[in-house]
Every structure is written in C-alpha cells, then in structure tokens.
Amino acid sequence: MLDALGTGTGIELSLLALVGLLLVFGSRRIPAWVNWMLDRFASPPVKEFYQKVVGPHQELGWVVAILGLVELLALLIPEKRGQAFVEVPVSLGLTITASWFVSRLFKQFFEFYILEAVIKSGRKSNSEFLILMQLLANVGIVIIAIVLFAQTHRINIVGLIASLGIGGLSVAFAAQKTLEQLLGGIVLYLDRPFVVDDYIGLPDGVFGRVESIGLRSTKIRTSGKGTLVIVPNSSLTQLTIENYTGGKKVMALVYLNFYQVIAIADRALVQQIIIDSTDDIFGIDTQNTIVTFKDFTDALGQARSQAQVTFFILGSEEVSMTLRRQLLDIANQTITEKLKSYGITFDIEEPTIYVDAPITI
C-alpha cells in the first residue's frame, strides 16, 4: 500500500514537473503563435480588438492560464492526500488574478470603445455617469468572482453574508458618524462640486482654497488669515457651496462705429437698446454690460462717435460658451435693426473680440 501511495505521488509530481516545463517553454512561443493565428485567420476588427484590449495585458492572461492548469492538476490529487491544502490557495489565487485580468480588460474596452464612441458622437456626455458605470462594472466583477469561489468550494455565502450583516450593523451603530463622513467623501468624488486648488465659499462665511479632499474630511486654507479649516464631508454634502474657481466669464468687446457724433441725450437710448437686446439671452450678464462712448475724427476729417460695448458671457463649459457666443452674434443683428429704426446708422467692427476673464476672487 505504501508502495502504491509512493508511486501515485511520484506520478503526480512528475505530471506537475512536466506541465511546469511545458509552461516555461510554451510561454516563449505562445505569444508568437497567437499573433500568427491572428494574422492568418482573424478578421481586421478581431485583430484590432485583441491588440487594443487584450494585448497590453497578455502577460497577466498567461498567469491566469498557468494558475488554471495548476488548479486542474490540484483537482486530480485525491482528497486523502491533502487536495484541499493545495487546491484552495491555488483556487483563491486564480480567482483574484482572473478578476484583476477581467477588470483590466474592461478598462481597456471602456477607454478604446465606449469613450471613443461618446467622443465621436459629438453629444454632451455626463462624466459622472461614465465614472459610475466603470465603478459598477468593477464591483460586479468582484461579486461574481466571490460567488463563483463560494459555490465551487461549498461555502454558505448566504449564511456568511447574514452573519457579516449582523456584525456590520453593530459596527455601523458604533461608527455612525465615521460612516456618514466616508459616504460623504464618495458623494463628493462622484458629484465633484469642487476639486483641489479651487476657491470655494460656505454659508457660514468660510472662504478659501481647497488643500485636500480626504475620505472623511476636506481641508480648506482660508484666505486672509491663512488658517486651516477641516470640514467633515458629510456636512459638505448638505451645504450650498459657491465655487469661485469653477465660475468662468468671457468678455466680449464689440465696437460700434457711428457715422455721426452721438449726442449725450441719445447715448442713453443707445445704451438701453443694447442692454434690452441681450436681456433675454441666458448667460449674458446684462447687469454688468458696459457701454462707453468716445468721439474721434476719421481720415476724411469727419467727426464721428464710437461705442465700445463690453458684454460678460458666463459659463463653465466650452459647449455652452460656444452657444452663447452664437446668441450674441444674433443679438448684434437685433441691436443693428433697432438702432437703425431710430435713424442711427453705424458699422460693427469684425470680428468680435473675446477675452477670457476669470471671476475676480
């Protein structure tokens, strides 16, 4: 019986050694074989998919294949000879490595196909939704890996979750404030009302630069005093935050060259027409619209007036800024028509000058 046991063990060790040698020598040839098969049999889309998604992580995939073969060999060991002692660690390593490999493949697929499709569509995308989708995909991969490992090793995952749930409730009651702050940090990460180095203001009068955003709290360096204010993230999710850095405005300079000198009494009329023509355009700060007049003499010696109109276009995204610039061009046409109805003729210098002007802090 001992001879039979020794013979069986020797055969298993020989098989393990043989497989190990095949894996070592095969690892040098298999990538070349895969590339040859792709060049010979695969269509261009399949080959492109492999190069973009699988290619950067093919070494990790080879590790998963090695662990898979070792797992199969471990299952051949009889239970009386310590199958669980060998198989469980190998299976756990295979589960973790395979999960990481699938997560990396999804990341490559997400970057090269999903994001590329969103950009090519030309439509406005919700970055927070894309981040959340990637996070949910990774969480789903982990959950599937845990369930598969539990099912293949006869682990009562329902009972384990129930026991962990009871213990989790006790921990949650004991660390309720800490959990609220951690959840607040997750909300700030997904919503992103501000980032590091942004200047923000809080309802209680705190104003300063965001130094860091942690899991539990956010540190704000106050302007003027230079003190450090530490605010729990759970509180920030319930406050009205004014982000000064996030605000953006563009000064649009429009020059109106009149054919005659505009009297002082008519200048107020011109200014009112200009303001009324842009009052219904969302994003144009008409309260800060500035109209200044100056008189000059042209090359022919004729006295004329020029009006410099300064519009402030508010916005935080390039798409909205482009749209509001187009609306401002329409407003210029409205201004021209209304002033001509009063018998005031002029030319608008082209092009309109746009100057980026961050909101003054």
Automatic annotation (TrEMBL):
The chain crosses the membrane at residues 60-77, 84-102, 129-150, 157-175. Keywords: Membrane, Transmembrane, Transmembrane helix. Pfam families: MS_channel_2nd. It is a multi-pass membrane protein. Residues 178-245 form the Mechanosensitive ion channel MscS domain. InterPro entries: LSM_dom_sf, MscS_beta-dom_sf, MscS_channel_2nd, MscS_channel_TM-2. It is found in: Membrane. Belongs to the MscS (TC 1.A.23) family. This is Mechanosensitive ion channel family protein.
